Amino acid sequence: LDKKGNGQPDDGRIKASPLARKMAEEQGIKLSNVEGSGPHGRIIKRDIESYEPSKAPAAPTATVSREDKEHRVSQMRKTIARRLSESKFSSPHYYETIDIDMSAVWDARKQLNEISDTKISFNDIVVKAVATALRKHPDINSSWQGDKIIEHGNVNVAVAVGIEEGLVTPVIDNTDQKGLQQIAAESKELIEKAQNRDLQPEEMEGSTFTVSNLGMFGIEEFTAIINPPNACILAVGAIREEPVVEEGEVVPGKRMKVTLSSDHRIVDGVSA
């Protein structure tokens, strides 16, 4: 009579020693899952002792076949695709990332919000800092147009806002001339309009720089595609709590990474 290697003879019965059967029953082990090492594949004591459930044959997982779905592309999505594709392929992007100490900013914001009627976000502070820097570095507050570079007289910072249909970039005009409270109030109003689909076309025109912030989603670092005709866009990550060294001592710190995407036709790495 031919024997099978898994301890089963041709008539389907499992060959196992009485002791192995008793041990398997006590431990709740199915003999059909055990590979025998005794004569002719017989299951013996050591096979039960060395048995690992993970070696048991896995039951096949049922799969469900689902049909593909086709979604019509909205006009907004088409516009976003066209503009950002043109930006990526026509503007030679390069990227620079820096890790910023946000401890002092964290404390300052807390103090400001204790006395301010309008709550100031970290993004409002970033927008204000960007606007101040652009006034000091007008070469970055520029656009490429054909065979010339336009250096803009006004500093108009756009804030990227994600909505269900895509991405919109409402603009805070003359950002450098406004205080933190005014920037915070205008930003809040523009974001609410964007979320309610109430933005007017003129509220999304005339930007000279864009800030995109994914920190509220826990994203620590990312790169963004330049919003044409801007020369740059700043990608802002989450504020991280981590130990830092100050004056030779390890203390709690708050850090934030920002990445600047720049159009190399307009801005060189040293300038950025």
Question: What report would you give on this structure?
Answer:
This protein has 272 residues and is α+β, with helices and mostly antiparallel strands. The protein folds into two domains: 18-55, E3-binding domain (Dihydrolipoamide Transferase, Irregular), CATH 4.10.320.10; 88-263, Chloramphenicol Acetyltransferase (2-Layer Sandwich). Helices cover 28% and strands 23% of the residues. It has a six-stranded mixed β-sheet, covered by helices on one side. Strands 2-3 form a two-stranded antiparallel ribbon. The longest helix is centred in the N-terminal third of the chain and has 16 residues, at 75-90. The model is unreliable at 1-5 (pLDDT under 50).
Protein traits:
alpha+beta, six-stranded mixed beta sheet, Dihydrolipoamide Transferase, Chloramphenicol Acetyltransferase, single chain, disordered N terminus, 272 residues, two-stranded antiparallel ribbon
